[in-house]
Amino acid sequence: MKTLRIALLVGVLLSIATQITIAANVSIDAYPLYAPRDGDGENVGTPFAVYVSLSEGDASSEYEFKVYPTSDANRARMWDASSQSWIHSGASYGSLPRVTTDSSGNWAGWIYSYFYSTVTSGSNTLRVRFRKVGVATNIDDSKSITIIDMTGSGDGAWIHATAVSTTAGKAVLAFNSSDRIIGIYAIEDNNVVEGYPSTSGYFKMAVPAGTFILKLQARNSDNSVFNTQTSSSWASGGTGTDTDLDVQEDVSLPVTLSFFTAIPIDSGVKLKWRTESEVGNIGFNIYRSETKDGKFIKLNDKLIPGAGNSAMPNDYYFTDKTAIKGKQYYYYLEDVSVDGLRQKSSIISTNKDLKRLTTTWGRIKRG
């Protein structure tokens, strides 16, 4: 009898153990402070992206998820990569988009969602909810956001531009003057059906109307930074408008230039420049003139090799050995990308005894 009881107890414990699910954690690691409302549920609205990580879950297991504003839990949709469709946030569990954890029980990635026009505008809470398939346990994380109205009488506006093709499929983040994220979406072609042009490098997102855009940042699938571009010219337009940022200042810059200097030395003029990041950069050309508005000639016989794709600073040097000591010269730097894009820096000069002359890229030219 004692042996039988022990066997039954072991059987019950094993049965309970097979039903235990590890308590997972969900974290919203990147999100916009503002989310647009303008979708009607049947037609795609303006989507945005959030980066979410699931940790300490069950290994190699399926988890389903949904994204929604807490004020209107059933008025949102999420992109389901498997079915290539937008799934209603009010869909029953078992029908929501799914992801699969790795052998350590972790998953992380970008999630795309949009809110209906009937969602309450103003202050709200963005919630991301995960559930292991077949288990009725919610795993949530929430962030405070503001819902912006994309109509002409609202407070939202669109911005769009075309980055270099090597950014395709990556996320692009827009930052305001306080260096806060105000918009996120995926760069085309992103394999998401939202009605945008599929031109490689194109992106569009919603941000507050009349807002200065301090910088744009491309991020990889793991949320690491791929490239960052800053500008003093980018800004969204009035309510309900769609602004082409390329018109204000070209967004297609494959290289972020930190500085470019020209320093006279005994053997000529030493040129030095640094890039903070490079995207699809083949290399550089250096041009010189004896007058600022004069004819510039190329000094290098061969293209000075660039770093290709790099998120790290790179230093470059070139000595103009044909320069006559004590004579004033003007220089500019030209970058050449894999897309045939050519961009040139502002012009620097040797007329002043400066240790460093900082310059920025000018308008980009397509070769």
Number of domains: 3
Low-confidence stretches: 6-10, 12-19, 352-367
Helix tally?
2
Order of helices and strands: HEEEEEEEEEEEEEEEEEHEEEEEEEEE
CATH homologous superfamily (4th level) name of the largest domain: Immunoglobulins
Indicate the overall shape. elongated
Helix percent band:
under 10%
| Biggest beta-sheet profile | 10 strands, mixed
Q: Report the sheet-strand fraction.
A: over 45%
- Gap between N and C termini: 89 Å
Q: Quick one: how many beta strands?
A: 26
- What is the arithmetic mean of pLDDT? 87
Structural class given helices, strands, pairing? mainly beta
CATH class of the largest domain: Mainly Beta
Describe this structure in words.
The protein has 367 residues and is mainly beta. The chain has 3 domains: 22-146, Immunoglobulin-like (Sandwich); 150-252, Sandwich (Immunoglobulin-like), CATH 2.60.40; 255-366, Immunoglobulins (Immunoglobulin-like, Sandwich). It has 2 helices and 26 strands. The protein has helices at 2-19, 245-248, and strands at 25-30, 34-39, 48-55, 62-69, 76-80, 85-88, 98-100, 107-116, 122-132, 139-149, 156-162, 171-175, 181-186, 202-208, 215-219, 225-230, 242-244, 255-265, 268-289, 297-298, 304-310, 314-320, 330-337, 341-345, 348-349, 361-366. The strands form 4 sheets. Strands 1, 2, 3, 4, 5, 6, 7, 8, 9 and 10 form a 10-stranded mixed beta sheet that branches. The longest helix has 18 residues, at 2-19.
